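User: Can you help me understand a structure? I only have the sequence.
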Amino acid sequence: MTRKSKGRQKVEMVKMPNESNLQVTFSKRRSGLFKKASELCTLCGAEIAIVVFSPGKKVFSFGHPCVESVIDRFITRNPPPTSGTMQLIEAHRNAGVRDLNMQLTQVLNQLEAEKKRGEELTQMRKASQRQCWWQAPIEELNQPQLEHLKVSLEELKKNVGKQAEKLMIQSSAPPQYFLGSSSTGNGGIHRPFDLKNTDFSSNMPNMMHPPPPSNMMPPPPPPPPHQRYNTGFSRGFY
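Assistant: Let's start by predicting it. Here is the structure, written out as tokens:
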């Protein structure tokens, strides 16, 4: 079941009582603070020094061109040197810092884009799992899904058993051989020949038919009139 987000809410400006939430919030806000300071240095050429102490008494700092020089100028109230050499060095340093800040900004933007892409892929994966829930691990299925999957598997088992039994019956049935008989004696009907019975005399009636009895045979036709009284002489018609 997907977790519903409460949306963007306004955070109350009081100290967090939960120590774990406090550490996470400090880490995120510190990174955001340093990012904004880097953008200010890049866009405006400002010199910045930031020193932050965490709730665990750890120190974090960010400075441009460096934390020490900015703090020294702030403490002594001394303006920066105006010599040409120092100005060139400072300009070269500032150019290098600006390039590094630009690279850092690009990397942070790419990281943010990859995070969003990862969230989109996670949402797509969850949506795909909701559509094809039976492909998910068994541990992630709820009670109705498990019951539905059980019924489907039982039905599949029955169908597989029926098909296997059908194939076994077809493979175990012995082949039958047929011998053809005369179309005049049996009407063109073919009778199966029993291979198990080796006594061919019992099968002879199926293959041969005896002649009909003499009393059932028709008499021969009478001779022609001119051959009834044959005396050895014949007349010809001329």
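Now, to help you interpret it: The chain has six helices and four strands. Confidence is low (pLDDT under 50) at residues 183-190. Let me know which part you'd like to focus on.
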